[in-house]
Amino acid sequence: MKRSQDRILTTHAGSLSRPESLIELNRVRSEGGKIDETSYAAAMAAAVAAIVQKQRDLGIDILDDGEFGKPMSQTYDYGVWWNYAYERMGGFVRPESVPESEHKKSSVADIALTTMNNRRDWQKFGEFYQDPQSTGLVGSAARRPTRRPVCTEPITYTGQAALQASIDNLKNAMAAAGVEEGFMCSVAPASFARGEDLHYSTEEEFVFASAEAMRTEYKAIVDSGLILQIDDPSLPDNWDMINPEPPLEEFKKFAMVRIEALNYALRDLPEDRIRFHICWGSWHGPHTTDIPLKDIIDLLLCVNAGAYSVEAGNVRHEHEWRVWRNGTLPEGKLLIPGVVSHATNVVEHPQVVADRIVKYAGVVGRENVLAGTDCGLGGRIHPQIAWAKLEALASGADIASKELWN
User: Fold this and answer.
1) How do residues 26-84 score in pLDDT, each as one tens digit?
2) Is 384 exposed, middle or buried (0-12, 13-18, 19+ CB in 10 A)?
3) Quick one: which of 130, 166, 269, 363 has the fewest CB in 10 Å?
4) Would you put residue 32 in left (φ > 0), alpha (ψ -120 to 50) or beta?
5) Measured between alpha carbons, how far is 152 from 135 in angstroms, rounded to an integer?
6) Domains of the chain, start order
7) Is 227 helix (H, G, I), strand (E, B) or coil?
8) Quick count: other Cβ atoms within 10 Å of Cβ 300?
């Protein structure tokens, strides 16, 4: 992975705003309508080429395909980063196809079946979350309960063709735009395996089977020459989904099993081609019951990755730069603090972005910082705001670079 050798390099967390034409094609597809697959593939390739060029024009150094290969059929979608994997996995069926008498519950299933309005934060601020007029931000209204697909057979990876198409589109677009380094996002086993399992004997078997299947995707991305980004909001996010609040050590044991599964999936893959992203959930709300970074920093650093992407612009977590003092970041690793946030429609001033970058450079070293975003911007805020935030990110990095190298 590139380092900030003579200036602060910029990147982001993955998802970018899809063009309306692509969203419409995905909507027709999701509703069972017929589309010409050749035309769809051409439209996808063109959309990826355009988004790569736009990122470069905005000043983003290490970029991706906007996660366009993960079909999104509406403008705002908070779940596409993980639910795409069900289309690439065998062994799952729709929950309504399983008789109610056969459904079972485990702690993993309980987490998956927990709707947003059962979270501790949503219970604490119930009036806010139940009032759709309380905020202009997307995602504040309560959601209907949903169930993830149910595992009924051995888990297998079946998405090779879709994955290869995404890899080819991104690499072709990078070549056309003259971009040297790109990354591709893939969901972590822990964030994927939060559904109901009717096949494996234990939760651990279920999670490790998911890890073995996802390894196919991880390895293909690394072998293609792209940087692999593992998306794992579950590491901090599961904390708020377990109600009532569990003892910290019990939660950490629960999380460590899932980290071990991820490392198992990453075995023999080079750490310097892997970055690990966490966040505290993309919904727009108070987040007062988020687990502090200081309580899970040891778990985060157990992941075999060369870079760690964390929230730093979200005002609930902006103060956590202090966690990285005293040599917390291992030697040779990179830190990707999110210096612009998906959690607000306010576009950060470039000087604010620069100040955040300089703060992190002061505690981990300027060469060890890549300026990023808290989470993916696509599907969470209006596209016009998303582009303005990326522009502010690049401008802030320029200001910070002048201060840090002069």
Assistant:
1) 999 888 888 899 999 999 999 999 999 999 999 999 999 999 999 888 888 888 998 99
2) exposed
3) 130
4) left
5) 41
6) 9-404 (3.20.20.210)
7) strand
8) 20
